[in-house]
Amino acid sequence: MPYSKILANIEKHVSLAEGERHFLLEQLELKEVQKKAYILQAGDTCRYFNFVNEGAFRAYYLSKEGKESTVMFAVSDWWITDMHCFINEQPAMLHIQAIEHSSIVRLSKEKLNLLFEELPKFERFFRVIMQNAYTREQLRVLENLSLTAEERYHNFISKYPRIVAHVTQKQIATYLGITPEFLSTIRAGKT
Amino acid sequence: MPYSKILANIEKHVSLAEGERHFLLEQLELKEVQKKAYILQAGDTCRYFNFVNEGAFRAYYLSKEGKESTVMFAVSDWWITDMHCFINEQPAMLHIQAIEHSSIVRLSKEKLNLLFEELPKFERFFRVIMQNAYTREQLRVLENLSLTAEERYHNFISKYPRIVAHVTQKQIATYLGITPEFLSTIRAGKT
Description:
Two copies of one chain form a homodimer.
Chain A: H1 4-11, H2 18-27, E1 29-33, E2 38-40, E3 48-54, E4 56-62, E5 68-75, E6 79-80, H3 83-88, E7 95-98, E8 102-108, H4 109-118, H5 121-146, H6 149-159, H7 161-164, H8 169-176, H9 180-187
Antiparallel strand pairs in A: 1-8, 2-7, 3-6, 3-8, 4-5, 4-7
Helix pairs in contact in A: 8-9
């Protein structure tokens, strides 16, 4: 059943009665995404909060000079959007692209607000995933400030083995903010 | 009345009935903090989520080599804690120090959990501040990856004028991850 993963993800944090589960399912929309297709492009309205059912995605910022900076990766069982733009209803700053053939379950902002109104325990679910996302980003800021690129690379591969299995070394370099050449040097153990 | 600021902060996001406001007030604890005193030190159990009533605080990581990295500042009307350690009940990684004579309203983890149970709309309040904190940190990661130190400095002073009024240039340098000397060069317009 296509929604079993998202239900398990949500029910890790809140327990749903049968009627609540049914109401939740009515708000969801399953979507196939071809490899290299975009579910969001910079400048678009960011309308969806996306659960990765299968596959892998990368959210990145593309500078005027053409430099890509990876803000996040998401594999199966992760949520991904351009949160700033989703929340504040501003044009997206990020591109979100499927790294491989994928499927997502998406929740529009209207449906999410409806869930907050009709199913108050959804507030708890969203609160928990937001606090986890916040602590993850705060640790990342801390690592950026205090660790060397080599230490950050080793932390990344030990913390996110499921992501490493789906992405290229070049993409990891754009996440760490280093050049692919420098990452090669790190991987060769020469730093 | 000492709790008027925190009530206004919370009631920006949720409206409280008289009885709810009263219950909330019973969980809060006002505390004076001398200039340079710590409300958290690395290694301690992080038990409190702190609202800055008056004054200013700085949360920083101190490396084994003695290098300070500022993770966040907080002035009046902001919340501050070591969120990762508060949530996951691990020893604090950060030091949180009063930059000037301050007062905080603190909420212990037990009281926060009690609020979530007894006052479900507090889930909404916490969800909103967590999503704001997450988007702030995600933008910071994005700026770290894509902007020069000079651009990040100018963004910081235009985004947080109230913080700039309370902190030293050296502290801002440790937030931006640059040396105080390099920040002086930026301020002199020489980059």
